[in-house]
Design a protein that fits this description.
The chain is α+β, with helices and mostly antiparallel strands. It is elongated and about 55 Å long. It starts with 6 loop residues before the first strand and ends with a strand. It comes from Croceitalea dokdonensis DOKDO 023.
Length: 243
């Protein structure tokens, strides 16, 4: 398994940040997930491990970290990382309605990218996107792997209000707004199901490294899935992903 040059920095008294090369790709992410899996066995209880893009943050709010000792131990452990182990990852399929009622920018995006709206929808639903980060809002997935011909800059003037469930494009990424929020992504559709539920355990279904696919649905199907989501009976399609 390929090893990368990593750096370790203090992240306050109770955390350490391990940084991989500044790349957004599957190889780096897979290495991060492998090391996270290793550390979950090597570390004692009380640690939280947070992967994202090209970093892994380790947090222990119970004890301050001895920077020199702990950082050296992390480097030693990384060198000991053996052959690639199976890390459980899933592919989730989420419904999206690309109707212009929801996709406020879909006509403009299609025109800018020189596609028809149908071609844009076909391209957007043909890819399995990788969850590289979760943040900004609880449950907001930064999804990489967007086809190059769908890349489009953020809007020059962000909206003050983007509806919950809105699916957008920005740069090399796509994503779903899990709640009403300001935002500058180009909105091309809407997902009818709630993504983040504080009453559920866990409150969010996906993990870093999982895959997300979008399935185009009609307005009538959107309305049905929205009701199913509100009453808690909708379950996203899920299958194991072999990386």
């Amino acid at each position: 398994m390929k090893k990368y040059p990593i750096t370790i920095k203090p992240f306050g008294l109770h955390a350490a940040l391990i940084a991989w090369p500044d790349q957004v790709n599957e190889g780096v992410l897979e290495d991060i997930l492998q090391f996270k899996h290793f550390l979950m066995d090597a570390l004692e209880d009380g640690w939280e491990l947070i992967p994202a893009y090209n970093s892994l943050t380790l947090v222990n709010t119970c004890i301050p970290i001895d920077e020199n000792k702990f950082h050296g131990q992390l480097l030693t452990w990384y060198k000991q990382l053996g052959p690639k182990q199976a890390v459980q990852r899933y592919q989730w399929t989420l419904p999206v309605c690309y109707d212009s009622e929801f996709g406020h920018d879909i006509q403009e995006v299609a025109s800018t990218l020189t596609f028809s709206v149908d071609e844009l929808i076909t391209k957007h639903t043909a890819t399995a996107y990788t969850v590289y980060g979760i943040g900004f809002l609880p449950g907001f997935m930064y999804l990489g792997g967007l086809p190059k011909d769908l890349e489009i800059p953020r809007k020059q003037t962000p909206r003050l209000h983007v509806d919950k469930g809105s699916v957008g494009l920005a740069g090399k990424q796509t994503g779903i707004y899990p709640q009403d929020s300001p935002g500058g992504w180009n909105i091309i559709g809407r997902c009818p199901i709630p993504l983040f539920n504080t009453k559920a355990s866990p409150p969010f279904f996906a993990s870093i490294g999982d895959k997300i696919r979008f399935k185009a649905v009609s307005k009538a199907e959107y309305d049905l899935h929205k009701i199913e989501g509100e009453v808690g009976i909708y379950q996203p399609e899920k299958k194991l992903w072999n990386a």
